[in-house]
Design brief:
CATH class of one domain: Alpha Beta
Order of helices and strands: HEEHEEHHEEH
CATH architecture of one domain: 2-Layer Sandwich
Shape: globular
Radius of gyration: 17 Å
Low-confidence stretches: 1-9
Distance between the termini: 24 Å
């Protein structure tokens, strides 16, 4: 059985990385009542073009299962310079032009810097 597990991990790699110096931000976005689908459309278009922001290394869009008018984002950046570049990037400016009309109150921001990432082979098999 051990050999089978090793073969499986070779085919479906585990991602395990220490992430020194990364900058992370958790964002809570309260959207106007019933506007979450529209906000998700805007955010998904943003994510589709993130390759134009090479310092943005990860971006996760989440829905709140207990509040249909809240979207959560978790994003991380290579370093402080990449975060500054993100805030000045044309892509981010586009997002800031489209999203505010859907937001009900000011988003909440919390800095959470990533330290380590582990994705199991069960997940990476479906991603890679």
């Amino acid at each position: 059985m051990g050999d089978t597990e090793n073969v499986s991990e070779q085919l479906d790699p585990v991602v395990d990385a220490v992430l020194p110096g990364r900058i992370g931000i958790l964002v809570r976005i309260p959207v106007l009542s019933g506007r979450r689908p529209a906000a998700l459309d805007v955010l998904n278009r943003y994510v589709d073009d993130l390759d134009s922001e090479p310092g943005t290394e990860a971006f996760m869009v989440c829905i709140d299962p207990q509040d249909e008018d809240v979207v959560w984002l978790y994003e991380w950046f290579r370093d402080e310079a990449a975060l500054a570049e993100h805030r000045e990037a044309p892509l981010f400016q586009r997002l800031m032009g489209e999203l505010p009309e859907l937001v009900g109150e000011n988003p909440g921001l919390m800095r959470l810097d990533p330290l380590r990432l582990r994705m199991t082979s069960a997940l990476t098999a479906n991603l890679f």
